[in-house]
Amino acid sequence: MSGAVEKGSTGTTKTPADFLKSIRGRPVVVKLNSGVDYRGHIMLFLEYFLSLVLGILACLDGYMNIAMEQTEEYVNGQLKNKYGDAFIRGNNVLYISTAKRTLGDGA
Amino acid sequence: MGADGNKKLSVKEGRASCGKKNYGLSLSLSLCEGVVRREEDMSSNNPSQLLPSELIDRCIGSKIWVIMKGDKELVGTLRGFDVYVNMVLEDVIEYEITSEGRRITKLDQILLNGNNIAILVPGGSPDPE
């Protein structure tokens, strides 16, 4: 495991910590396990910053707690709610994606 | 009769002791093999001794098929992972198996939470779609 973390500094690999660094302030889509999507701008990864203070490269405890702004809530691809700021508790997060995205049904 | 019986007994004992010797020899041989194998493990990469994390590490840069708990699968290029097997994936196709069929979502780059990952298959899905 330590090998994977060490390789994070090179160009070919991108660890979760590198990914979080690269998307801060950028528009993202956060998908929860329930299937609900949240589109918005990432303000903070609380655990990530905590881990920086402690000098640990990996996400501290596997949590993905996120603070977002200009948040839009999508259920089944349809806009249901808008929030100025939102805190998403990390245990619900399925994935965090960069915002460019296409949707397709069937196949 | 009695002498014969003694002879047989002694022969049996001889065999028994011989067998013990052989056993002892084979045991020491196998112990030696064990030492040699362990030395091989230390010096080089013995394919029979592969950590799960090393297997995933070898997949970095190539396609990987992620089967989640529940009816969800993802195929994408693995960019990296951490100790929780949270994964950074690129050019991802997400398959959600629903009663109406498969819903497909294409994603540029994601950080996938490792919490719900069930199985990882190197090389991507056999399904071309």
From TrEMBL, chain A:
Signal peptide: none annotated. InterPro entries: Lsm6/sSmF (IPR016487), LSM_dom_sf (IPR010920), Sm (IPR047575), Sm_dom_euk/arc (IPR001163). SUPFAM superfamilies: Sm-like ribonucleoproteins. It is found in: Cytoplasm; Nucleus. Belongs to the snRNP Sm proteins family. SmF/LSm6 subfamily. One of its GO terms (molecular function) is RNA binding. The chain crosses the membrane at residues 42-60. It holds the Pfam family LSM. Residues 15-102 form the Sm domain. Its main location: cytoplasm. GO terms for biological process: maturation of SSU-rRNA; mRNA splicing, via spliceosome; tRNA processing. This is Sm domain-containing protein. It comes from Rhododendron griersonianum. One of its GO terms (cellular component) is sno(s)RNA-containing ribonucleoprotein complex. PROSITE patterns: SM. Keywords: Cytoplasm, Membrane, mRNA processing, mRNA splicing, Nucleus, Ribonucleoprotein, RNA-binding, rRNA processing, Spliceosome, Transmembrane, Transmembrane helix, tRNA processing. PANTHER family: SMALL NUCLEAR RIBONUCLEOPROTEIN F SNRNP-F, U6 SNRNA-ASSOCIATED SM-LIKE PROTEIN LSM6.
From TrEMBL, chain B:
One of its GO terms (biological process) is mRNA splicing, via spliceosome. Pfam families: LSM (PF01423). Transmembrane segments: none annotated. It comes from the Eukaryota. It is found in: Nucleus. One of its GO terms (molecular function) is RNA binding. Residues 51-126 form the Sm domain. PROSITE patterns: SM. One of its GO terms (cellular component) is U6 snRNP. The keyword RNA-binding applies. Keywords: Acetylation, mRNA processing, mRNA splicing, Nucleus, Ribonucleoprotein, RNA-binding, Spliceosome. PANTHER family: U6 SNRNA-ASSOCIATED PROTEIN, U6 SNRNA-ASSOCIATED SM-LIKE PROTEIN LSM5. Belongs to the snRNP Sm proteins family. Plays a role in U6 snRNP assembly and function. Binds to the 3' end of U6 snRNA. LSm subunits form a heteromer with a doughnut shape. This is U6 snRNA-associated Sm-like protein LSm5. It comes from Rhododendron griersonianum. The lineage of its organism: Eukaryota, Viridiplantae, Streptophyta, Embryophyta, Tracheophyta.
